[in-house]
Amino acid sequence: MKASTWLGGGNFEFGDVPDPEIGPDDVMVRIGTVGVCGTDVHITQGLFPAEPPQILGHEASGEIIEVGQNVNRERIGENVVLNHTTSCGECDRCRNWTVSRCERSTQKHEFFAELASVPNASAVPVPIGLDVEVASITEPASCCFSGVGRLSIDDGAVGLVIGGGMMGLMTAAFMKTSGVETVALSEPVGYRRDFAIQLGIDVVHDPSEGSVDDFVSDLTNGRGLHIAAEAVGKAELVAKCVDLVRPRGQVLMIGVAPAGAVLPVDLYDMQYREVVLQSGFGRGDVFNQTPAELAKLNLEGVITGRYDLKDVPQAIIDSGEGKGVKLVIKPNG
Fold this sequence. Notes:
CATH superfamily of the largest domain: Medium-chain alcohol dehydrogenases, catalytic domain
Helix content: 10-25%
CATH architecture of the largest domain: Alpha-Beta Complex
CATH topology of the largest domain: Quinone Oxidoreductase, Chain A, domain 1
Largest sheet: 7 strands, mixed
Oligomer: single chain
Shape: globular
Strand content: 25-35%
Distance between the termini: 13 Å
Structural class: alpha/beta
Number of domains: 2
């Protein structure tokens, strides 16, 4: 099969690699769509730990074309989204933290390739009402859905998400569907603000036209937010979220800051106001639920760039420059 193998830095090699083997409990999937994630970008920039050479890409959907001997052959032809790691469901981490941090997980599947062999349980059916190409955003969306699930949401809550990339948009959308009464998004790029409105976000803010402090003051009559989520991955914006919430407000970290980043906050002020700092990292336990949640949203037009498998390097560059809403690779055209 063809694959794009990361060699380090921004260097990739496009060419033939061995087809994956299919075990008795596995399914073989022809990859239709793979999302380009900020993690892929950060790996090439040296901001996320990874060792070359390896195949990147962990947000995929496609069609089952073969199954192992222990898998029902009726699955052949099924459209699925792929969970790129496995879990045992029994270890301390699975039981008391999350299955996405399983201490026994030894399999990791990456998808900048034409084919992938994954355990049957890792191939989740695409529900009716969700386009199979759009379903490729399940992995990042599940990270947001898991993070929002950590919040305590009261009646009449007002929330803000800073950053309108894929993670920010999904966080805002799930805040809305989870019961936050008024959800706002602060994002400098116009078409991302427009897409937020399409998703059902109540109010959008352009930081080039006024400070987020004034915007929040007007939105909350000076009382501050119940919830502020940071979806960029910058420590100073997490600190801004701390400033923007009311006493006993909640701050949710969704954007991933580089290793070594330090949060510049006044700890006395944070403690005095009893601000709650939450963080979300990874899919939690909600990957299998997320496709059905996505089917509830108006996601038409969410994919704004499609690239051939040989063009992974350019897709990584474009994603790093913040182009579009969601950029994807089409390994099989």
